[in-house]
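Model: You mentioned two targets. I'll fold them one after the other.
Researcher: Yes, keep them separate.
Model: Target one:
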Amino acid sequence: MSEIEVKVIGIDCNDLKDKVKSLGGTLVKKEFQENYIFSLPSELNSTGYIRIRVTKDYLHNNNKTLLCIKKVISQEKVRKMDEREFEVDNFDEAFGFLSALNIEFLSKENKSRESYKLNNSLIEFDKWDDEVFPYPYAEIESEDEEELNNIVSLLNIPTDKVTSKGLLQIKKEMGL
């Protein structure tokens, strides 16, 4: 499945969230995530990562564990990823499976996420643990680039606040 997204950095997330709600955006997720990040095998000749995500869903009062691989397709105006994700019922077995394949575990990173559906897009507000990334930001994910651009325009987000860069690249550029 292809994922098309941008990050919105250096904005007041509460103001943006209010704007999303005023335009009819509906809350679809409120969760805490534990993200276990693994490297991609070098044979894939791709940029990306493998992730096990454990979520505590506050809206539906449940937990789930997801296994995902993300590979960067392009990072020009928007970030396009090939993403494959599915639910697993046993975190320890998933972790052990990746370890048995000699896939390198890189880090555990926690974040809180609140997501809103607006038109055909998802606007997600993320706050990582401070040692991972100290600033809240938004992500806009859409089915296609035109829809994504329409949402950015509808929300009056300045273009200099929108980036297709990944979090690692943003952190590097910020000296974090």
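Model: Target two:
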Amino acid sequence: MENILQDIEKVLFTHEEIVEASKRIAKQIEEDYKDKEPVLICTLKGALPFMAELMKHIDIHVVTDFIDVSSYHGGTESTGTILIKKDVGMDIAGRDVIIVEDIVDTGRTLKALIENLLERKVASVTCASLLDKPEARIVDIEPDYIGLICPKAFVVGFGLDYEERYRNTPYVGVLKEEIYS
């Protein structure tokens, strides 16, 4: 098996930096939801490692669920059209929802997902994102809880993928252009 690191141009965020960002967001969530029991909705598959890390550091009761939405459709940029492949399995009406995202770049997927959840009459909806890529933003939207600011580059690792590969790396790095071009 080939070494994944040889496909990475440079490591942007180490595992230690990701853990520290997760702890910081967890503390903010604890403060903001201290008298509530929010529903953490993990966007599959990319946000799964972040959700697992984040949950370990939240010291209030939370409920979890999953949604699988796609806007990349095999490419390297969001198309803006979301497809719900797997919906949440619980009734979220009246609940405080925190969308757990791996990355917010154009903002299109997050905006569409928030609109979808608001139609379900949730009490509130916020977003915790491991990475925020404001340079790529097309839609005027921002995550409520931001782990790390990401430059405008094609990144993989810690859940982020290219053609379902690289999700298992413990860091986030820039993928070499020759891999995806």
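Researcher: Noted. Anything on target two?
Model: The chain is about 25% helix and 30% strand.
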